[in-house]
Amino acid sequence: MKIVVTGGSGQLGQAVVRELCEHGHDVLSLDRKPHPNGHRPSWSVDLLNPSALFEACEGAAAIVHLAAHIAPNLTTDCATFNDNVNMTYNVMRAASYAGVGRVVLASSIAAYGYLYGLNGESPDYLPVDENHPCRPTDPYGLSKVMAERLADAFVQTERMSIASLRLPGVNYDPEFHRINHLMKDPGFRRPGFWSYIDVRDAAIVCRLAAETPFSGHRVYNAAAPSSNMREPTRQLIERFLPDLKEIRTPADGNWSGIDCSRAERELGFRAMHVWEDIL
Questions:
Q1: Residue 153's domain is classified under what CATH number?
Q2: Within 13 Å of residue 253, how many CA atoms lie on the same side as its CB?
Q3: pLDDT tens readout for residues 57-99
């Protein structure tokens, strides 16, 4: 397939471009910066100006939309929210005009509201699945929820299907040095419920979401099955989430606070790059 990747020059974007190419797809990378590995074709595109998007989408079977302000406080709150939402709308509108059948959105577990807000409140239950209420108060989390609501609207009127991938913090170091360092401070990782995903697995789930047949708009958590801590998760909950009312897994050990069983069932996704194999 011809697949367009926005944000193809970013760290995740480079991995997604490589994963798609290795599986036989023709990839057009869109970014404001040149592709650092010289991938061709690559176009310099500002997604806030949608005109180039329409030409880029011509003949494409899928778009993987990664371009975004990737966290709050990297720019102003207004720019974080407005730019992320506007870019997502422009991508979906261009896809609909060009007849692109599949859009994959890089969402975030920030959509649940705990990663950058809610002042240490506990979720309704762990591990969190896609049915958990979304309660973000920060501009980044709100932009991700709004992108998912846009996806709900587009699939009602357009002939396309959309996958929103709720990703936790992405590990870009194959030796897991940063995770090893952060294990000394489990409280710092509490807002993400001790979840992570390696960039290689994030690229795989993006590919699977572009390739796997489904209809409508589907939201998928995608994370490593284990936490980014050595300490058993139930002990971490006792220490850092003492008000948590429900644990929905009988598992012991260091399980992730993010439930990825839907992605396993529907996309065939299972994270393969975990710190336990290296550290």
A1: 3.40.50.720
A2: 7
A3: 999 999 999 999 999 999 999 999 999 999 999 999 999 999 9
